[in-house]
Design the sequence.
């Protein structure tokens, strides 16, 4: 559109409280269109079809089309025709993603367990001495010395299939980890490769509400680690964990984390797997 | 009832199954689109003979060409059979190769011109019919061959015979775009003043009006029209004439108004349309649009009405862009114009998305500069209808959202009203759309709304907007990320810390 615009003035009685520097730039603009403008193409074609006596009443040829919805996460090119599809996609694939290995888990709880068991070196240490492997069924509470024990429990007691997809052991990962390409510049990597391994958990669904936690202020990773130590929860984490935190570099810190602090979404992580581990301290939301 | 039946411009023959017909149509449409992109979109019209129901199937064969040669030969001799031969010639000249054959014959045009200007009225009529067929030729070298006849065609425009005048006009309109030489000659021979006086004298004769409109539109679409043609037209009496015949006659139908409206559109697109404003074009077009909107609202959507709505909408849209704000109310007149445009906008999104898009553009121009029109949209309760259009793509929803943004931009009071109409929850949906412009515009509108009252921010948070904006921060587009981040930081998160857990859910 060729703006030939006039900026309307605001009411003098209602002063704008806008800061001078905002990223918002909309102003109403008058648009004058020349006769060859693309906006006019369809109408022109219709006119000329009429001149050449090819006019037909358009009632029998509906050409409506509706806007599609698309996943915002950079790198995910999923597109949907209905809002519900979008919501389902987002909830299934982007809500509970492990940032270390980019696996998508169906619930926050399973994600927590995954991170603990796969990416937490403290867990590995502790698991040598005590029963650390939790039963996956919410409310069961049993813990086991090895993942095989847990698996037996799941099959025997909870009648799970032996090939339950969210109970893969680290060994099952196999070549997948080694083939991982170097981390790209975007936080959320291709979701495509996550989709292949995970499905939707049918048995239990503790999809937590999306509401952001109130009262959270913005902290850097380092500060959060420090805060975490003082509020250590039942897992018995100690200083060893914070060492694990610092040793894992967040590759995307500069590119996507903006200059000013902003809230780390509790349900979407970026680049740093161990943040998920902190969720324990806030307690479970029921 | 529309004149589609009466003036049968080369009625389409239904050859083959309906599927074949549709395929051919689509191909034809594609060709037209490509022609437009190449700035070569030109159409010609063919008037059928009065006694013809359908055009005769022309066998474009050697016999046609031979007929031409032999007929020409016969026409050399005067006598009562001349009329018959001439009539036969006009039929033969419908075939493209016969047309070529004709112009190759020595002195053929000379002969035709002498018959055109002779004392026999019937021969004149058949001769002009021959020229008309020639003008319709797909071969571009035919038109220059017809140049000897054009001064006479122009002279005859001031005559009184309807059919004859029509044929002259359509012939001239067909010839004009074919070559630069033809254009130059016709302009030099005074085609514009001739059209002006023809229209003036024959205003009561609607078939002639339609023909003048068509011919003028051919002139106005020329590539160099802006320098050579439009200034002359604007200086003549043509604009006022066109405006005066704009209202369609209920008996005759829409066709003359359609042609004149398209002429006005080409004029309004030009750089220099202040002339048009001065002559009350905006007022006239606005009131026509109002009555068209009323007709559609009452369910009286005539066949082909969109062919008239389209150019009138465009005139209004472009004239608005140049109209000074303070004279807007006098130029447009009735503020209810917004209602008419909304009616048109809502009538066509399914069948004619382009028309819906153009209506939305006009609304943008109405609301961009004027608070009165924004206020009218709200007070006439037209906004809910606009909100319902936001799912429609093909440029409709972005334009409609722009209109809503125009309204929100004017006053905080308007923002409050928009929020009360449910715009916030709609934005939660539009923020998820694939179209980047939609998302960016949604963020802009959200910003304007959030600035107006705290309630908007509360509502947005309540609807899960925060996590939505957080997701946007992973979008590859920096424009979106910056806006979403700004909203979160400055308006949504700072206040959400005051809420307790109970409130949030």
Sequence:
């Amino acid at each position: 559109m060729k703006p030939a615009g006039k900026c309307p003035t605001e009411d003098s009685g209602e002063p704008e409280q806008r800061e001078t520097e905002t990223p918002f730039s909309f102003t109403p603009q008058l648009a004058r269109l020349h006769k060859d403008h693309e906006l006019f193409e369809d109408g022109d074609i219709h006119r000329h079809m009429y001149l050449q006596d090819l006019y037909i009443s358009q009632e029998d040829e509906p050409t409506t089309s509706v806007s599609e919805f698309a996943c915002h996460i950079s790198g995910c090119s999923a597109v949907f025709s209905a809002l519900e599809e979008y919501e389902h996609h987002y909830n299934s694939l982007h809500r509970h993603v492990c940032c270390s290995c980019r696996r998508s888990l169906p619930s926050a709880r399973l994600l927590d367990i995954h991170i603990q068991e796969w990416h937490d070196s403290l867990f590995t240490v502790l698991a040598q001495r005590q029963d650390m492997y939790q039963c996956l069924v919410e409310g069961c509470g049993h813990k086991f010395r090895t993942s095989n024990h847990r698996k037996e429990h799941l099959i025997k007691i909870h009648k799970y299939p032996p090939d339950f997809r969210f109970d893969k052991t680290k060994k099952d990962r196999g070549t997948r980890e080694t083939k991982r390409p170097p981390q790209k510049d975007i936080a959320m990597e291709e979701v495509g490769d996550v989709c292949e391994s995970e499905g939707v958990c049918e048995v239990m669904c503790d999809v937590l509400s999306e509401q952001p936690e109130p009262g959270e202020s913005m902290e850097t990773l380092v500060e959060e680690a420090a805060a975490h130590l003082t509020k250590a929860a039942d897992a018995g984490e100690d200083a060893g964990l914070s060492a694990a935190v610092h040793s894992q570099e967040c590759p995307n810190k500069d590119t996507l984390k903006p200059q000013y602090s902003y809230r780390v979404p509790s349900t979407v992580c970026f680049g740093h797997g161990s943040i998920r581990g902190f969720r324990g301290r806030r307690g479970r939301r029921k | 009832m529309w004149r589609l039946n009466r003036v049968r411009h080369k009625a389409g023959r239904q050859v083959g199954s309906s599927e074949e017909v549709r395929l051919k149509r689509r191909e034809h449409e594609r060709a037209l689109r490509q022609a437009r992109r190449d700035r070569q979109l030109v159409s010609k019209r063919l008037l059928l003979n009065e006694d013809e129901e359908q055009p005769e199937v022309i066998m474009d064969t050697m016999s046609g060409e031979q007929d031409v040669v032999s007929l020409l030969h016969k026409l050399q001799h005067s006598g009562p059979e001349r009329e018959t031969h001439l009539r036969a010639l006009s039929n033969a000249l419908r075939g493209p190769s016969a047309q070529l054959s004709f112009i190759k014959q020595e002195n053929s045009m000379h002969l035709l011109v002498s018959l055109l200007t002779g004392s026999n009225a019937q021969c004149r009529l058949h001769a002009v019919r021959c020229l008309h067929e020639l003008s319709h030729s797909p071969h571009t070298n035919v038109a220059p061959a017809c140049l000897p006849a054009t001064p006479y065609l122009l002279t005859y425009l001031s005559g009184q015979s309807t059919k004859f005048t029509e044929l002259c006009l359509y012939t001239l309109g067909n010839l004009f775009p074919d070559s630069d030489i033809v254009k130059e000659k016709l302009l030099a021979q005074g085609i514009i003043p001739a059209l002006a006086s023809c229209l003036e004298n024959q205003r009561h004769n609607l078939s002639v009006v339609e023909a003048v409109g068509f011919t003028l539109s051919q002139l106005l679409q020329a590539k160099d029209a802006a320098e050579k043609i439009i200034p002359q037209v604007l200086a003549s009496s043509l604009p006022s004439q066109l405006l005066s015949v704009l209202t369609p006659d209920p008996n005759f139908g829409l066709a003359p108004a359609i042609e004149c409206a398209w002429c006005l559109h080409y004029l309004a697109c030009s750089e220099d349309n202040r002339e048009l404003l001065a002559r009350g074009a905006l007022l006239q077009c606005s009131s026509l649009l109002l009555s068209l909107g009323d007709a559609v609202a009452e369910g009286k959507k005539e066949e082909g009405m969109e062919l008239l709505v389209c150019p009138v909408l465009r005139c209004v849209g472009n004239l608005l862009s140049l109209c000074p704000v303070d004279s807007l109310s006098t130029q447009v007149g009735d503020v209810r114009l917004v209602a008419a445009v909304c009616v048109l906008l809502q009538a066509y999104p399914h069948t004619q998305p382009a028309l819906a898009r153009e209506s939305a553009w006009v609304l943008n121009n109405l609301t961009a500069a004027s608070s009165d029109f924004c206020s009218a949209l709200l007070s006439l309760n037209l906004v809910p209808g606009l909100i319902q259009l936001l799912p429609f793509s093909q440029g409709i929803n972005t334009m409609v959202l722009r209109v809503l943004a125009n309204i929100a931009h004017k006053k905080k009071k308007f923002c409050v009203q928009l929020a009360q109409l449910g715009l916030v929850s709609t934005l939660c949906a539009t923020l998820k759309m694939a179209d980047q412009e939609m998302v960016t515009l949604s963020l802009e509108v959200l910003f304007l709304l959030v600035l107006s009252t705290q309630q908007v921010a509360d509502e947005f948070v309540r609807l899960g907007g925060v996590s939505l904006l957080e997701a946007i921060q992973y979008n590859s587009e920096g424009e979106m990320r910056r806006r979403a981040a700004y909203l979160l930081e400055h308006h949504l998160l700072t206040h959400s810390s005051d809420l307790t857990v109970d409130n949030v859910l």
